[in-house]
């Protein structure tokens, strides 16, 4: 800067030519005339170094796109840059779009992103989802922990999703977790979407019980409809990880904080499910929405609940009003949950029979001691 001021000072003396001054200061005549011009226009401040950044860029994001990105984020405050980008791909397919990383910088520059603390995570447990290859292979059901609405009423949200497409089938604000309230919800879903092949739940009521093989009345009804109840291991919610992730989003957008009344809470659930299914892109689905992948089941809900049928080689007995069944002149107690239902007995050897209810292996019958041996429940292979 000192040299530039000296150069301009010598020029102002008008004692030497510009060419001679440029040779003296070791600069080109182009640079010399540039310094003289800047000094004439701006004074000494014009001699400072200027930014060499280009005034324009051919790939610069337009102000209209910036405003669109910010409006999408403001409408969906839980969406990150990738979901905003997926939404733009689906709704603006012919418009040049910024990348997800650029969208992230736009959101950060305008204060729409709060940085998260980095956490070390355990790889997800994927074994329960190996057989889930299409819609309605497995539905996931659970209660999203109870809370109280603004009027202090208890709310137990019952949630049901399709494991393959992540489609939110139901989110009902129930006052209790009883079978009498849960079964009508599933009846409505079966009529609207058809029957799945399996329903995965935890080990709580009304999905399971302390009866033989953990069967509840709700599970018995599912089995009669040809639906296999699947239960995760106690204390392992990661085995139903897709549904737990749904609960996390549900809580953030509808429960924190709760609504004023149960009716308003249900309205919030309905709006959330509509957006979750039709608007929210899912990274696990390649940026698609659940609506784009989910189709109703080809298995319709029957007008009358069918009875369980067994292969010809099995001996069939009916569970009596006290929970017993008759076997070779004796009354053997099995389960009150199965009162009125047929069970199948398959001979294993000269001493033991395996007892089934539909595809569920309930227990072994020891013909010598007339004792019922209750192992861990497992599924009979299809023949």
Structure description:
This protein has 383 residues and is an alpha+beta fold. The chain folds into four domains: 46 residues; 47 residues; 165 residues, Nucleotidyltransferase, domain 5 (2-Layer Sandwich), CATH 3.30.420.10; 65 residues, no CATH class. 33% of the residues lie in helices and 18% in strands. It contains eleven helices and 14 strands. The strands form three sheets. Strands 1, 2, 3, 4, 5 and 6 form a six-stranded mixed sheet that branches. Helix 1 packs across helix 3. The longest helix has 17 residues.
Name of the CATH first level of the largest domain: Alpha Beta
Assembly state here? single chain
- According to DSSP, the number of beta strands is 14
Number of helices: 11
Count of the separate structural domains: 4
**CATH fold label of the largest domain:** Nucleotidyltransferase, domain 5
**Secondary structure: helix percent:** 25-40%
Largest sheet: 6 strands, mixed
Q: Give the overall silhouette.
A: rod-shaped
**Radius of gyration over all CA atoms, rounded:** 35 Å
Q: Note the run of SSEs as H and E.
A: HHHHHHEEEEHEHEHHHEEEEEEEE
Which regions are unreliable across 5 or more consecutive residues at pLDDT < 50? 121-130, 377-383
The class by helix and strand makeup works out as alpha+beta
CATH superfamily descriptor of the largest domain: Ribonuclease H-like superfamily/Ribonuclease H
Average pLDDT over all residues: 87
β-strand percent reads: 15-25%
Calculate the terminal CA-CA distance, rounded to whole Å: 91 Å
